[in-house]
Design brief:
The protein is of the alpha/beta class and 255 residues long. The chain has one domain: 3-Layer(aba) Sandwich (Rossmann fold), CATH 3.40.50. Helices cover 50% and strands 11% of the residues. Helix 1 packs across helix 2, helix 1 crosses helix 7 and helix 2 crosses helix 7.
């Protein structure tokens, strides 16, 4: 059974590899870490801080938590932990709950609206805090599941990017946990004793059934053929356009 230190070392190694492979962090970067209070964002913040202390380049971190206004959501545990650990942090209120009540029909899925609002708040906070990049806690399984969701249900070969310049042309989003399996994060966060906090969204207990099916499919395939998840992630970086349905008018743009 692996210890917390061993797990942290593995996650730190994979995160450092992603930072090097995709050029995610450079000298003088000030990075806003989007801290939702969940296992992924706590792991991201902790591992980035561990890397910061060892890194050959100088960079700084600031944790930002967006309070969505859902009844029952509390940031007390988050704030207390961040203060005790010496992290620079900020809690920002956003009227997500009120907008969901006003704008959405009972059968609408709120996740898309919530995500757009949070993203806008983070972009604004990044500029206000003088941050050069925004770090999100998406891990390896998020990348793979998104790839298959887009292929199965949207007819697109698309996942996420480890480094992405946002639509506003200024914000740069990074996802340093791209190589880290979710199972490692679950085990590490459990051992670390982070104050994991549920967002208290009314839809939180109603899972995305499509994503659940994809997650189960991948789990079954990985059990039968270990390494399938790693292969799918690798495929995102090796695209052979010659053997895809690329229309003639688009070929020159790709080539």
């Amino acid at each position: 059974m692996q210890s917390r230190d061993v797990r942290e070392h593995q996650i730190r190694r994979l995160t450092g590899q992603a930072i090097g492979d995709f050029g995610l962090i450079g000298e003088g970067d000030r990075i806003l870490v989007a801290l939702s209070g969940g296992k992924d964002s706590w792991t991201l913040l902790t591992v980035l801080e561990s890397l910061r202390r060892r890194a050959p380049v100088s960079f700084s971190l600031v944790a930002v938590t967006v309070h969505p206004g859902f009844p029952g959501f509390s940031t007390e545990g988050i704030e207390s932990y961040l203060r005790d650990q010496g992290f620079e942090h900020r809690i920002v209120a956003a009227p997500i709950h009120d907008l969901m009540v006003d704008k959405l029909r009972p059968d609408d899925i709120p996740c898309s609206l919530c995500s757009r609002i949070k993203r806008g708040v983070l972009y604004t906070q990044a500029m206000d805090l003088g941050c050069t990049k925004i770090a999100l806690g998406h891990h390896r399984d998020d990348f793979i599941e998104t790839l298959l969701l887009n292929q199965f249900y949207n007819g697109r070969i698309k996942a996420m990017a480890p480094l992405l310049r946002a639509d506003d042309g200024r914000s740069v989003v990074i996802r340093p946990l791209v190589y880290v399996p979710e199972e490692d994060i679950i085990a590490y966060a459990g051992d670390a004793g982070f104050p994991v906090t549920c967002c208290a969204c009314p839809a939180c207990g109603d899972p995305d059934q499509k994503r659940v099916r994809i997650k189960k499919l991948l789990a079954g395939l990985e059990e039968e053929h270990p390494g399938i998840k790693a292969s799918l992630l690798a495929a995102l970086g090796v695209v052979d356009h010659r053997h895809l349905l690329v229309r003639e008018r688009e070929r020159s743009r790709i080539e």
